[in-house]
Specification:
Pfam families: APH (PF01636). It comes from Colletotrichum tanaceti. This is Aminoglycoside phosphotransferase domain-containing protein. InterPro entries: AGP_Transferase (IPR051678), Aminoglycoside_PTrfase (IPR002575), Kinase-like_dom_sf (IPR011009). By secondary structure, this protein is an alpha+beta fold. The protein has 2 domains: 231 residues; 78 residues, no CATH class. It is 26% helix and 20% strand. The protein has a 5-stranded antiparallel β-sheet with strand order 1-2-3-7-6, covered by helices on one side. Strands 8-12-13 form a 3-stranded antiparallel β-sheet, with helices on one face. A 3-stranded antiparallel β-sheet has the order 9-11-14. A hairpin with a 3-residue loop joins strand 1 and strand 2. The two termini are 20 Å apart.
């Protein structure tokens, strides 16, 4: 690893398939993985879905909750994009996860948590989605489909309530002495949705997906989102290996999958997303535009009210390095 990269990773205490986490004094930093950092698991290369948009949504959700409620959440210091990674910097909250408590202690915490959930349900909107202006489906809904891409759109309906959508025990930080909740964290999937989206995963250990002996509500969520035209399936797989589709010999064995996420704007934060995409496209070489298709840039800048994001898959690390060309 280059010295510059080692310096950047100084203080990193955890890395997942989607994020890197840092603590710098009283600040907590989490950032998205850069495309060149994408990791390979037993299913192949893992390309995080809505990687940047989820952090944007979390930042705006934290600001929204602090402004409109007394629910304890970390203070947002800043959020920004740099070198193909999105950063969210908040205050570091001392405490332990609810998962580390005894059953009797959890019962005390649960009473306070139920009050906070009532507060969230009193926040209502007739527009689905997060304060960021983006609709981020709950993780369990995204996991339940093999769709290559989703086009997300805002939709008017009846009143929605504000949901955290990832309320597991590890996301509830507690003072171990007083048993008071110090912070509820990880608001990446938060937004206004029907009340049943907020499943009480905090009642047991584990992540915010159904276990083998629990009812899996993800098909219900997808059915609702599809019926409200919040999700529109749009596959656009190009230049993938072994599928008989187009391959460009100029770059050896390096092939990509184009993933497109479209957002309809009602003003505000989404405009920043457009600018970020425009900057990203500007750094592609003519060869790379040929690989993706010469019309991709035009589609990204002009297709209805959508803003496309290209997410590359690097299948051969010995091939021409695409990653560096995407750096600002």
């Amino acid at each position: 690893m280059p010295a510059e990269q080692e310096k950047k990773d100084d203080g990193c205490f955890a890395t997942t398939f989607e994020r890197k986490y840092y603590r710098r004094g009283g600040a907590f930093v989490k950032r998205s993985l850069r495309p060149r950092e994408f990791r390979t698991g037993y299913r192949g290369l893992h390309v995080p879905r809505l990687n940047t948009e989820r952090l944007m949504n979390e930042a705006e959700s934290l600001r929204f909750i602090r402004l409109h409620t007394e629910i304890p959440v970390p203070k947002v210091y800043c959020d920004f994009e740099d070198d193909d990674a999105y950063y969210l910097i908040t205050e570091y909250v001392e405490g332990v996860g609810m998962s580390e408590l005894t059953d009797d202690q959890k019962a005390v915490v649960r009473k306070e948590l139920e009050g906070h959930l009532t507060t969230l349900k009193n926040l209502k909107s007739n527009r689905i989605g997060g304060p960021s202006g983006i609709v981020i489906p709950p993780d369990r809904a995204l996991r339940s489909t093999d769709t290559d891409t989703w086009s997300l759109r805002l939709s008017d309906w009846d009143e929605y309530v504000f949901c955290h959508n990832d309320l597991s025990q590890q996301n509830i930080i507690v003072n171990p002495d007083t048993l008071r909740i110090e912070a509820i964290i990880d608001w990446e999937y938060a937004g206004f949705f029907p009340p049943y989206f907020e499943w009480p995963f905090f009642n047991r250990l584990g992540s915010s997906v159904a276990t083998n002996d629990e009812y899996d509500d993800s098909p219900d969520l997808l059915e609702f989102l599809t019926s409200q035209k919040c999700l529109r399936r749009r596959k656009r797989r190009v230049m993938t290996a072994g599928e008989g589709t187009r391959k460009t010999s100029d770059v050896g064995n390096l092939m990509f999958v184009e993933e497109v996420f479209g957002f309809e704007s009602y003003g505000g934060p989404v405009a920043g997303l457009y600018s970020a995409c425009e900057r990203r496209v500007a750094h592609l070489t003519s060869e790379e535009l040929d690989i993706i298709g010469r019309n991709s840039q035009k589609r990204m800048l002009a297709e209805e009210l959508s803003y496309d994001i290209l997410v590359e898959h690097q299948h051969d690390r010995n091939a021409v390095v695409w990653d560096n060309t995407l750096r600002s």
